[in-house]
Amino acid sequence: MPDTGHARNRTLAAVLIAIAVICLALAIFYFTQKTTFLAGSPAKIQLKHGLLFAGLAVVSAIGANILWRRNS
Q: Do residues 22 and 9 lie in contact, with contact meaning Cβ atoms separated by under 8 Å?
């Protein structure tokens, strides 16, 4: 029976890369636009949301890197 763990790792890594890109785009949005989107305060630059999504992008990219290198 063929080993499908390698293919699953690569697929999960690709999904994590997509999540990282989306989170990075949201971080840039929150750092550059005055908005109340997903925030309960007046329109302003949402620094905390930007930092959160930037951190999630970094964590997702690190996870993708680990999975991509596993079983390579």
A: no
pLDDT tens-digit series, residues 45-72: 788 889 999 999 999 999 999 998 876 5
Q: pTM to 2 decimals?
A: 0.81
Map out the domains of the chain as residue ranges.
5-69
DSSP 3-state assignment of 10? Answer: helix
Q: Are 23 and 36 in contact (CB under 8 A)?
A: no
Residue 44, helix vs strand vs coil = strand
Q: Would you call 34 helix, strand, or coil by DSSP? A: strand
Beta-strand runs (E) in 4-67 = 34-35, 44-45
